[in-house]
Amino acid sequence: MVVEIRAVRTALFLVFLLALLQPCLAAELPRIIAHRGASGYLPEHTLEAHALAHGQNADFIELDIILTKDSKLIVFHDLTLDATTNVHLVYPHRHRADGHWYAMDFTLGELRKLKVGERRTAEGKAVFPGRFPPEVYLYRIATLEEVIAQLRGLNKSSGKKIGLDVEIKDPQFHLQQGMNLSRLVHESLMDDPAILGELPLLVQSFDARCLKYLAHTLQAPYPLVQLLDHVPCPEAGITAITPKDFFLEVSAYAQGIALDHQGLGTSAYFPHFVHQAKKQGLTVDIYTARQDKFPDCYTSFSGMISYLHEVLAVDGIITDFPDSVRAILNRE
Questions:
Q1: What per-residue confidence (pLDDT) applies to 147?
Q2: I need a surface site. Which of 123, 243, 259, 318 has the fewest CB within 10 A?
Q3: Rounded to two decimals, what is the model's pTM?
Q4: What is the CATH number of the domain that holds 241?
Q5: Is 35 designated active site?
Q6: What is d(CA 234, CA 283) in angstroms, rounded to the nearest whole number?
Q7: Catalytic residue among 45, 50, 77, 261
């Protein structure tokens, strides 16, 4: 009888302890960053895709920023309009000599006449066949101002505090065209001081010069993230720089890095690189987790997400499917 009472007391104590620890455990989950909105379900970077990501409880919504001819900040991934709009129908003769239609060759007013659809290949086929029908054009290009206004509105009406993960897209290309995209994005984010108080904010780029400019010249008060399309490692023939030297260099201007998830299946060095980055105080996000396309080294999408969380302990997962990632993490 005494043994049974002790067992009951022990069980109750464990239940009580788990209840106390639950908030701490939840806090350790990686942030879920909706890649171009909930782009697994709706055409990327539309206001509708961003709204769906908000409803699916992403922690951040990732967006790419480029400029129009009249220097308006639009939320669009490519420098060209070919893959996700009907520009070839609306402006059939406005392409450059290379055959592409560039967003910066059009004013915002002209871009408003376009419709946005699912991403297509150069041959007109769906990049992701199981997603939104590529022949259906229902949406329009959004501005950064509109995305911020919608997010603030949804946060207010829902009581959530979902943030923005802003990527400055090809800043050097814009500079070659006489446009300082980095400065314009910074000024837009700083134009309303309330934004920083209301919205968690990250700013990222593949271009280290852009991030250094934001950090040192513009004194950006928000966290900066260095995007990497490969892991600098001996396998890639990069031996002149050690991980510690690399991370010391990055930490001089950024607070985090984001890595391409394809490295999970191609580089045995990948886990070591992630752990070294975290050891040096940098946050680590992984992009882009897609349940309809993931590395062959995993038999399931859930297996990959579990590995990112439980083994690599990454700080963020950038995904086209925020609801699926949330469900997997909540089951763990």
A1: 97
A2: 123
A3: 0.89
A4: 3.20.20.190
A5: yes
A6: 23
A7: 77
